[in-house]
Specification:
The chain has 158 residues and is an alpha+beta fold. Strands 1-4-5 form a 3-stranded antiparallel beta sheet. A hairpin with a 5-residue loop joins strand 4 and strand 5. It starts with 12 loop residues before the first strand and ends with a strand.
Length: 158
């Protein structure tokens, strides 16, 4: 198959996934510490160990980043935080400000139902993105090439 850049007609094309991996540099460092410390309680021996992991990216690699799946954990975490904060506010306004004797109220019940429906909708949207849009975006990214001469991004038709 003869692939050519649509901009400069060059045949010097590189797969985007390969160019992305070439631009990543993963590092790992380990260090140890041993020392004798003298203080008011007498001498002590201090020992420690640390491991550091890191990744560096080139500017090209940042542009060629593959699509990512949306996180269920973020949706759940933000939903819990908002539910507790807004639920507490509704509870406070309804019981403390109006001197109500019951904890269960129509606004609080309505909020719980709306929050539950919104949570289910958000989970469905994340699931749909991860199973439909992400797969399509990743397949398109995986079929793409970059021109080594002019830097144009070229997608192949399937």
């Amino acid at each position: 198959m003869d692939l050519r850049c649509p901009k400069c007609n060059s045949t010097d094309l590189k797969k985007v996934s390969l160019a992305y991996e070439e631009g990543l540099v993963r590092t790992e460092g380990r260090t140890r510490l041993r020392a004798i410390v003298a203080g008011s309680g007498g001498p002590n021996l201090v020992m420690g160990r640390a491991t550091t992991h890191g990744t560096e990216q080139s500017a090209l690699t940042k542009k060629l980043t593959p699509p990512v799946k949306w996180s269920y954990l973020k949706v759940i975490g933000w939903s819990i935080l908002l539910f507790v904060c807004v639920g507490w506010l509704i509870f406070y306004v309804n019981t403390v400000m109006t001197n109500a004797t019951t904890v269960s109220s129509a606004p609080l019940t309505l909020f719980v139902l709306m929050a539950g429906a919104t949570f289910v909708l958000l989970l469905f949207l994340v699931w749909r993105h991860n199973h439909v849009a992400y797969r399509r975006q990743f397949a398109e990214w995986d079929r793409s090439y970059i021109c080594a001469r002019c830097g144009a991004n070229c997608a192949t038709e399937t």
